[in-house]
């Protein structure tokens, strides 16, 4: 996910910005709401509702058996990788035995770091799509949407042997046309309930505080491992949430024994 005021993906943040801009108008308030919760007006399904509808073909959890109907689960997700910071992030997750869901970009990311894509899959993380070139899908023609979604699917399947079943639309912007094409391609859309807005700060402590302030059961945390302040915040986030009794799971584990359905949107 990216906010309209987010810097270019090809440029790193060098300065710490203010936590939030002043919302002096209804437009600014609406933009902030979108940044926090995804595309406004989109019908979404909560993890608890999915778990109430068991699916017959759900794969067992790779980090041990976790039943999110019984324990307090939360999902850690990362957008827009792989990046130069991803190897360190994977080391942290391995050390702390925490699975994550990675929504990967194709151009300049999967292309540049194919070995990290393989490592993510090999170490038990869920590898999903964040489109090929981070184009806003709701502004594209259907054939362009299809290409943005299909190209990363093909590359991820080539590298890992598994075709993605989940995607996250850039900026959380989606509509009925996107839903229909996702259904055709076997993709469910995943938004988020927690964001640190880490694209606007390099302050790892601030990132940590924002995540902890918003986290609750069944939360889906949105972070970006390509920004300098994010990966250093991850160990503290994990430790603090574990102390609160949370169990980290991938998005598919969060939904189990239910299953994400193509063309549907989850938050």
Mean pLDDT across every amino acid position: 87
- Secondary structure class reads alpha/beta
- Give me the number of helical elements: 10
What percentage of residues falls in helices of 4 or more residues? 25-40%
Question: How would you describe the overall organization of this protein?
Answer:
With 267 residues, this protein is of the alpha/beta class. It contains 10 helices and 9 strands. Strands 1, 2, 3, 6, 7 and 8 form a 6-stranded parallel beta sheet that branches. Strands 4-5-9 form a 3-stranded parallel beta sheet, covered by helices on one side. Helix 6 packs parallel to helix 7 and helix 8 runs parallel beside helix 9. It is globular, with a radius of gyration of 17 Å.
């Amino acid at each position: 996910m990216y906010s309209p005021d987010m810097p270019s993906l090809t440029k790193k943040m060098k300065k710490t910005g203010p936590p939030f801009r002043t919302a002096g108008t209804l437009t600014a308030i609406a933009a902030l709401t979108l940044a926090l919760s995804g595309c406004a007006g989109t019908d979404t399904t909560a993890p608890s509702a999915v778990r109430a509808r068991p699916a017959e073909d759900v794969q067992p959890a790779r980090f041990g058996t976790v039943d999110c109907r019984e324990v307090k689960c939360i999902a850690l997700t990362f957008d827009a990788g792989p990046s130069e910071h991803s190897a360190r992030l994977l080391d942290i997750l391995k050390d702390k035995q925490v699975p994550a869901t990675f929504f990967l970009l194709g151009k300049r990311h999967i292309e540049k770091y194919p070995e990290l894509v393989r490592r993510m899959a090999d170490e038990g993380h869920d590898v999903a799509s964040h489109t090929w070139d981070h184009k806003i899908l709701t502004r594209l023609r259907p054939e362009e949407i299809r290409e943005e979604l299909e190209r990363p699917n093909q590359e991820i399947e080539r590298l890992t042997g598994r075709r993605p079943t989940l995607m996250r639309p850039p900026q959380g912007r989606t509509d009925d046309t996107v839903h229909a094409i996702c259904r055709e391609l076997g993709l469910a859309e995943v938004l988020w309930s927690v964001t640190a807005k880490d694209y606007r700060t390099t302050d790892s402590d601030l990132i940590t505080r924002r995540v902890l302030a918003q986290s609750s059961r069944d939360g889906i945390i949105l972070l970006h491992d390509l920004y300098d302040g994010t990966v250093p915040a991850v160990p503290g986030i994990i430790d603090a949430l574990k102390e609160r009794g949370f169990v980290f799971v991938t998005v598919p584990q969060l939904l189990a024994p239910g299953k994400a359905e193509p063309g549907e949107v989850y938050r």
